[in-house]
Design a protein that fits this description.
Number of helices: 5
Radius of gyration: 29 Å
Strand content: under 5%
Distance between the termini: 86 Å
Order of helices and strands: HHHHH
Shape: elongated
Number of strands: 0
Length: 112
């Protein structure tokens, strides 16, 4: 989606407005994009570039595209499976616990 301000540089006043709208007024990305006549991606990029957000995904009103959400879910599942397999492998490599003296004496009593 192209906007009327697509490709135009950001002015200092516009950056100050962006900060005010996001931090003080708590507008979401779509509201800010509409006001500034820029795309939501442009707003997200500028918020991140100016240090107002650390990641797009944490931005108020950010809507993750479905294809990215699916990919992130796949990666999350793969990580969980990998973690579980690592845990199982490390458990199988551990030496069995030594028998306590009471259980070994029971064994000896059974064999008598």
């Amino acid at each position: 989606m192209f906007s009327r301000r697509n490709g135009r540089p950001w002015t200092v006043n516009e950056i100050l407005q962006l900060q005010r709208e996001y931090e003080l007024l708590e507008w979401n990305i779509q509201q800010i994009a509409s006001k500034h006549q820029r795309t939501a991606d442009a707003i997200l990029y500028k918020l991140e570039q100016e240090g107002f957000i650390d990641k797009w995904i944490n931005a108020r009103g950010y809507v993750m595209p479905p294809e990215i959400a699916v990919e992130m879910e796949k990666q999350s599942i793969q990580q969980m499976v990998s973690d579980r397999l690592s845990t199982l492998r490390s458990r199988s490599k551990q030496a069995p616990a030594p028998l306590s003296s009471s259980s070994s004496s029971r064994k000896n009593m059974l064999h008598c």
